[in-house]
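Hey, can you fold this one?
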Amino acid sequence: MSLRTVLTGAAVIAAAACSLPLGALAQETLKVGLSVPMSGAAASWGTHMKWGAEKAAQEINKDGGIKVGGKAYRVEVIAYDNKYNATEGAKAAQLLFNRDGVDFVIGSLGTAPTQALQSISEREGKLIFTTAFGKALKGPKFPLTFTQLNTPVELLPQIYGYVKKMHPDVKTVALLNPNDATGQDTEPQSQKLWNALGVQVLSSDWFERSTTEFQPIVSKLVRLKPDIIELTNGPPTTAGVIFKELAVQGWSGIKIVVASAGERDFVTTGGPAVNGTYLGAAAELSGPKATELQRSLNKMAEDELKEPVTPLTLCTWDALMALKAAIDKAQSFEPKKVAEALPTILFMSSWGPAAFGSAAVYGTPQQLLIPTVVSQVQDGKPIEVLRVVPQELEARIKGKQ
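Sure. Predicted structure:
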């Protein structure tokens, strides 16, 4: 090849560069991952988490990306379907870390797939955010794992306490959980808290997440005549089917669903039978109690997903904004340095100012501090009846003023 040819090629490249937006060539890419169910009964949860992550990435990229060492990095979201089981969770982890070169996972849903993910991420020095309910996923043994959403430790005392306050005469409860790591981790917490409130647990039953026929399980629950039936975990469509069958069989007691994100599906499948249900992970995200950002995201979701946002939609937005703030402070993409910075930051989440804390509970400050909300389905809509801001968060905010 002649020198003239080389120079001509260089001139073409230079001319093409001039036509690009300013800074486009200098910008590199930071890949972040998701391990979420995008098929099966919990598919809507994963779809919403992916959508929230992509919206957050678009916002960050529009503002110039994440800047470290004088370079701007655009954010790219890579998502895999973990099918809510450990095998697919391990497969998603291998793809994210070994094929895609991801150092940060900004969303993982399901205790079993998250345990599979975590077994690799902690060993390989990768940082992950998770919604998983398993309490054992946090603590000093897992310094690179952070929870991006309220878990049963935060939710159960608030919803149980509120129900007991509103219905002081309740004496009995029946528990129903999916037969997997999520349900098995949560069930002992439920038993302990109900007993502390003086409410007897009559039964604790299990179902497979693939179950579609609930008549036998419901018949057993109805025969027990509990004051309360609680479905702690499980997709909203499943919960709706269960409560509809309870109504068909004549039971009309107090209903609780703790993992209730995706309440529109719950109401659609359950119909009038779900009215009155107390929800532990739902919130009014389009009304006056929502932040301006939540209302804006809700409108976009209604337009694009044909569904309202839920706390699960927002949790990946919040995780990515927390990651950006921690990287900004650490001025590093080294996961261990970012993990050290996360507990020290106060950042702007979709809920307003937020931080990581709860070291007194978990041994390390790995829990996202955001409001805990209890809602109740009234005329087919979730209406907030209680909102509690963590005292630790209030102290952090006050300390920054």
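The longest strand covers residues 71-81. Let me know if you want another pass with a different chain boundary.
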